[in-house]
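User: Need the bound-state model for glutamine:
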Amino acid sequence: MTTSQTKFIFITGGVVSSLGKGLASASLASILQGRGFKVRLRKLDPYLNVDPGTMSPYQHGEVFVNDDGTEADLDLGHYERFSGVSATKNDSTTSGKIYQNVINKERRGEYLGATIQVVPHVTNEIKDFILSNLDDEDFVLCEIGGTVGDIEGQPYLEAIRQIAYEFGRARVMFVHLTLLPYIPTAGELKTKPTQHSVKKLQEYGIQPDMLVCRSQKQIDENEKRKLALFCNVRQENVITALDVSNIYEVPIAYAKEGIDRAVCNHFGIECEQNLPDLSKWEHILEVMSKPQGVVKIAVVGKYTQLLEAYKSLGEAIKHGAIANRVKADIDWIDCEKIEKEGAEKYLKDTDAVIVPGGFGKRGTLGKIKAITYVRENKIPFLGICFGMQMAVIETMRNLAGVQNADTTEFAQDCVPVVGLMTEWQKEGLKQTRSKDSDLGGTMRLGAYPCRIKKGSKAYEIYQKEEISERHRHRYEVNPEYENVLLKNGMQICGKSPEGRLPEIVERNDHPFFIGVQFHPELKSKPFEPHPIFVALIKAAVKLKKA
Ligand code: GLN
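Assistant: Bound-state model below.
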């Protein structure tokens, strides 16, 4: 429910993409929380995919998964990590989804014979998305994906303009994130691209209230005055967003620039006296600035050319390191290199190895070779989703002697140690999937409970029997092989509550060898590091000291 108190902050981007709107939005939300406000973050992506679930990780980076199984943009990960607020299906959408809803309504005759148009039907659908399913928040921060001027983005700009018209400017604020390029030969920061971007926004009837300017250099008062005058923005609302080496510096850096004061002033909220409480960020930066050691963590994956594909994983490793007061040097290793050149060359100096999630056959042999290496050399290991499936296949092939143990994801005539379970339970209902299902949205997605065996390493890590973790996969470890695995040193120590689906495996002959069918990285936060990553880094520190 929106109350008359709920205020909306719309964040648009200008000049170029990849300016970090997600981080900027998440940081602003966290600062507002530091002032005691209740916030909610939402993302609207103008592309036509219904969700990013079927998009290549090379194009779009990681697919973030919410508890409710929504496959969302990776910015939702920043939102959750910075604000601690769990996102739902009501917090991310795309043009694909918006149009799908409109067309479904049209097919059902809900528009009573009207001609369906972008304005008002698509824009109304966007407005409904923004304004529905709220819970008395003080601030709702909505990030519009893409860059102002994109054809796809126009309905979104029209929708937020209408919301400002209907709610009045006292409840709506427009924040525009732009870039001030630095031209070394002129020795100047250039404001013209920002001026053009604001002119474009004004064409759509949107007057930004604040400019957040990404820049390599401090923006001096002269430049701020110029930007303010030409862009019709109050000078104190021109915020410098200096490049930082560590994203966890952003909230404090923005607060120093007075971003929250500018927001409070815009909405007429009294704020001069008190400062936001950012002590938790200060603590994180303090620990990160004085690490008591360094551990080297190797991630053996296949999307290593684009680290955005492993966004949450990189963050979760950092959180585990912070909890152990060390720094993690992450070595992103292309599994195809290990496939060709062997594991020794790449893994011999490493303190822990992670084989992350993945899809498809390419490079799998490299992952299996890496797993053999860490198993034999007692290097701490975490296999996530596909990484767990590969760990199980490795034990079957190399210890149980089943040479053609494989996954039916890409192998036909194999011993199906990993296969397609055709049904599983979600909230008491049976869900089915088959090889012919649509690729989008048909995986086991979102939070599922798992029961952990007492006395296992996993139990020691979680300190409880019942956990809930997020999934995103189509295939499962086949429970029929439980006994063979056990005979070969691998126990299934976490299962779905009815006892059927293997969720966690661990080796009994190894100091730290764990595989999980879920994605623990999706729930890790700087202020709430995930216990598995804390334990993995702890094991790495121990190995290093030994
Ligand atoms: N490709 C595997 C599956 O679909 C693993 C997926 C993943 O690692 N997220 O089951």
